[in-house]
Amino acid sequence: MTAQLIDGNALSKQLRAEVAQRAAALRARGIMPGLAVVLVGENQASQVYVRNKVKACEDNGLHSVLEKHPADLSEAALLARVEALNNDPTIHGILVQLPLPAHIDAQKVIEAISPAKDVDGFHVASAGALMTGSAGFWPCTPYGCMKMLESIGYELRGKHAVVIGRSNIVGKPMALMLLQKNATVTICHSATPDLKAMTLQADVIVAAVGKQNVLTADMVKPGAVVIDVGMNRNAQGKLCGDVDFAGVKEVAGYITPVPGGVGPMTITMLLVNTLEAAERS
Ligand code: GUN
Question: What predicted TM-score, i.e. pTM, was given to this entire model?
Answer without folding.
Answer: 0.97
